[in-house]
Amino acid sequence: MWVDSGMLKEMVESRDAVSNAARVVIVGGGASGVLLAARLFDASVARAVHVSVVEPSARLAAGVAYGTDDPEHLLNVRASGMSADPSNPGDLVDWMAVRNLGGPDTFLPRREYRNYLGEHLRKAADKAAAGTLEVLQDQVIGIEMFSGSPSLRLGSGKVLAADFVVLAIGNPPPGIPDSLRALEGIPSWVPDPWAPGALESLDDKKRIMLVGTGLTMADVAVTLSRRSRLSDSLQLLALSRSGMLPMSHLLLQPPRPLQVINLAEDSQDVLALQEKIRARISDGLGAEYPNENWREVIDAIRPFANALWRRFDTEQQQVFLSQVLRNWDVRRHRMSPPTAERLDLLMTSGVMTTHVGQVLAAVGLPIGGIELQLDLDGQSQTTKVDAVVNCTGPGRSWLTPQNPVVTALIKLGLAQPDQHGLGLMTTADGCLIAQNGETVDQILVIGPPRRGTLFETTAIPELRSQALHIADHIVLCRT
């Protein structure tokens, strides 16, 4: 089974499936869904599986992260760390070598990584011991439970009965700052830069406000600066409360072991841990090498991030979210060196400027353009721009879910947001925790919706690990 020309069709590949096959519906065909489907086929040696992937768009593995077709939108991690196969760390690098796409230190275009994920699923399906795959270009609009088993209603009217449902629905849509809600419906307002064709109408705009200074802003700035018809006079203004840009990877960073975290000691006080890390990076306190780079220190913390998060009490978690998160994000989620160089060129040439502040109010003008009332670098001022792009990044709040499946599950009492509203309450295995505290073994979650439980749950290393464990849960659990 596979899909030609990037278009999904309803397809079925049969393979000696037996009567006890686990019927699995994966809601979402982005990276999380593709990785899970591949691992289910690997696990079909233990139990036959029938996998239905329900994806409303026309492509697999083409969520927000890898849906872009811009060749200058690069991975933010070296190829050596992005294998989809947990048993073969060099799988992506080998795939790239055959296609002359670079080596282990390459920051691959994200559209190429999408192609890799698609081929990875095809290979897993081809090798499956006992599995069938059904890919549906459709949308799940409702879910019910009958005799303890899930049943899903699709937008097309089709009903899917399942033994297990896995939510691979990614992040919520980008959050819209309250001060920008009045711009709804104005053509020069872009609430979601990742929506298909969202930036095409801005090619002839001269002065553009980018609200947000994270990785989304970097990608948007790269695209706009290359496509603009007014490149000689283009002005990009990037604005956020911190004004902080993501840091950059080094071109080369030889791996070497570092011991930074002591779980028993460092899980008591978030701010004390922050000071410990600052002292090591800035003053060399506790450094194991005379030339330690801060990136090595951050990378050595990452494997412990989820364990730390689970050990922090609710108060310490909130301290992290309110006082530490932004400093962590700009260092943990780094730009590729080519992207950082491109952004630096935009700033040194004056095409882009960055500012600390926020939009206080916005209104569309009858003559075109948008008038903004700003708190800009400590000064209150009003300015006119030709367009505004929301670059605040993926939404983070699940307190008011916009996904119909999540809404239905919450109404049924089978799901609940975590205490910070960052995701859905799940067990360590990824099963939903119902509002009565019981585990819902038949409905699992992979990826960003587990953020309140795991915190680090969006990158490929975490996703492939979750996919492996969820697949094992499904084939070993008898319904």
Fold blueprint:
Blueprint: E1 11-13, E2 22-27, H1 31-42, E3 49-54, H2 91-98, H3 110-127, E4 131-136, E5 140-146, E6 149-154, E7 159-161, E8 164-167, E9 189-190, E10 207-211, H4 215-227, E11 235-240, H5 263-266, H6 270-283, H7 294-301, H8 305-311, H9 314-332, H10 337-348, E12 352-364, E13 370-376, E14 379-385, E15 387-390, H11 404-411, E16 431-433, E17 439-445, H12 451-454, H13 460-476
Parallel strand pairs: 2-3, 2-8, 3-4, 8-17, 9-15, 10-11, 10-15, 11-12
Antiparallel strand pairs: 1-4, 5-6, 6-7, 12-13, 13-14, 16-17
Helix pairs in contact: 1-3, 1-13, 4-10
Question: Can you give a write-up of this model?
Answer:
With 479 residues, the protein is an alpha/beta fold. The protein has 13 helices and 17 strands. The chain has 3 domains: 4-172 and 396-476, FAD/NAD(P)-binding domain; 178-247 and 335-390, 3-Layer(bba) Sandwich (FAD/NAD(P)-binding domain); 263-332, no CATH class. It has helices spanning 31-42, 91-98, 110-127, 215-227, 263-266, 270-283, 294-301, 305-311, 314-332, 337-348, 404-411, 451-454, 460-476; strands spanning 11-13, 22-27, 49-54, 131-136, 140-146, 149-154, 159-161, 164-167, 189-190, 207-211, 235-240, 352-364, 370-376, 379-385, 387-390, 431-433, 439-445. The strands form 3 sheets. Strands 1-4-3-2-8-17-16 form a 7-stranded mixed β-sheet, covered by helices on one side.
